[in-house]
Sequence to fold (443 residues):
Amino acid sequence: MRINVVGTGYLGAVHAVCMAHLGHEVCGYDTDEAKIAALAAGESPFYEPEFEELLTEVLETGRLRFTTDPAEAVSGAAVHFVCVGTPQQAGSNAADVRYVDAAVSTIAAHADTPGLVVGKSTVPVGTAQRLSGELAASRAAELLELAWNPEFLREGKAIQDTLHPDRLIFGVTSEAAEKTLHQVYARLIERGTPHLTTDLATAEMVKVAANSFLATKISFINAMAEVCELVNADVVTLGRALGYDERIGRKFLNAGLGFGGGCLPKDIRAFSARAGELGASDSLTFLHEVDKINVRRREKAVQVATAMVGGDCLGKSIAVLGAAFKPNSDDVRDSPALNVAAAMHLKGADVRVHDPRAIANAKAMFPTLTYCDTAEDACRNVDLIVLATEWDEYCSIDPVAFRSVVRQPRLLDTRNAIDRDYWVGAGWYVYALGRGAMAPAEG
Ligand code: UDX
Fold:
């Protein structure tokens, strides 16, 4: 099947590569020439495990190509995936859908064969219906139809999530559109992947509701962490205990510094803003609380770090391990780790940041922090280590060897990632968010 993927950012590039891997003939289109040149040369513009290997592999088959020419991308394609970004609007919580609008207009302007336009971007509910009307009024009304097929991929697991999704959602308005989507995903459906056919609005809702639920689950356990800290209870044990209840489940109950990244924070805000427009603000008021709990965890981390260096950051040296919003990613958008690092820097600390992959992106966002090539270098002579992103390499640091690296053996574990007893046994004073402080035995 001839497939056109509009937008080769994170979502689009991964989708294009995976569609070609599944056997389709794919063209990836973007207006960004540097991005297209890199992808065509087999180089990934971002860090994502397995991505570059699969890109190289499918480029060699000849089934995948990239272009900045819209006519070349659109002409002859049977399916056009819309994978462009929907960032938060400046000065508002609402989503900016101008790139989605532009993508659909481009497809309508160049279509020369019958095709299905399939939205994958996360959009305000009702956008698909509007775009469907716009296509019907365009020059390509007789050729194009709209469907919505939301994407649930996680950064760091994007290839796995695309090739082995938990479910496929087909928001359609005709049997022909449903059939086309079945053909696109035939190999996944044959393998038994659950798939649901819905109307356009329900398909849009599935995405925003899923992200809202995940964000709520994280903020729920972080709200419990706030209470645990007051009564000397242990939120890690609490999460484990709750998780045994199959109705609750263990996943996404890791208390810590909360959620960040390019999706959850902006998506829950955009969903609330959309609910307001629809006259349903009350239905999503709780998402505002979810957001507030999330932001409070960052403030708490800064408060605890300040107390751990004696109540004043000025003149203190603090290592922050991790800059990406989560491990196995180089994405620093709304990164809790970087936010905490920047806040301590503002309070006068010399903040030394390390991350295995995200230093270049972090530097571009917060150029005034000190960036180090190794975790050991970041921790040299510091008064405190803040573990802010749970990369494997930080979880396997040897606390015995690291004692001689730092000035003061103090660790703030904001992700509940290290073996606290082991570190304390090695002479460290450890504070874990939602678990409180633990000091080494005297003597
Ligand atoms: C998310 C959704 O999971 C995905 O389905 C959607 O398509 C896009 O948004 P992603 O942003 O890649 O994916 O990351 P995710 O793994 O969901 O983590 C989001 C944030 O929550 C990270 O900052 C992570 O550190 C944090 N998190 C996650 C927690 O704080 N606790 C948890 O238990 C789980």
